[in-house]
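so ive been stuck on this for like two days lol. basically i have the seq below and the ligand is 5-O-phosphono-D-xylulose, smiles is in there too. i just want the complex predicted, nothing fancy, no docking runs or whatever. if the output looks off dont worry ill sanity check it later, just need somthing to start from for the group meeting slides
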Amino acid sequence: MIKLAPSILAADFANLANEVKRVEEVGCDLLHIDVMDGHFVPNITLGPPIVQSLKEKTKMPFDVHLMIENPDQYIGDFVKAGADIISVHSEACRHLHRTIQHIKSYGIKAAVALNPATPLTDIEYVLEDLDMVLIMTVNPGFGGQSFIPGMLNKIKELRGMINKKKLDLDIQVDGGIKPDNVGLVTEAGANVLVAGSAVFNSVDMEATVKEIRRNAK
Ligand SMILES: O=C(CO)[C@@H](O)[C@H](O)COP(=O)(O)O
Ligand SMILES: [Co+2]
């Protein structure tokens, strides 16, 4: 089952409630919320108050991608604000296993994100504890960047690891995902597709969402 998670980083921030309504109406599955702190990545976006105010505007589950240093300090705040899934970067966690348990202690889903240069061995021993792995297909920090083709092998390898361990785990891809590469990433094993600029900057959002679903394998 392919799930589509539009990233609100590419939305019109002055009209966020409407933008969220728009993606819900065209049948998107999750709302991907990019949180950046200006330290882990060179950009600053939004925090728990905005997440909380959006929560009343939609029934879509909130997929919160934390691109921040010391994520443990803020996990509780994002849960209170309405996060249903929280992704932390392995590169930002000194005690990754503990952070995953911290997320799960709130009864929500836990995911780990890996930068393009980070090997899969970072998550090898915590795979059983996860609901999802987020493979970054660009370097985190900005929307609108180009997909890194070398990540296809990483997705395939991860799907192989998951199958070998007989786990039921989502693979999310994030960065530069467009209708013309969803066939490749889904064939490689990804099943949760984040798309920011492809969805929000399209002239016909409904047609783009349909095209993404049609092209997914
Ligand atoms: O986490 C990030 C970037 O750091 C992403 O979620 C982007 O916001 C995706 O945007 P596009 O590459 O699809 O425009
Ligand atoms: Co993201």
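The chain has one domain: 3-215. The longest strand covers residues 31-36.
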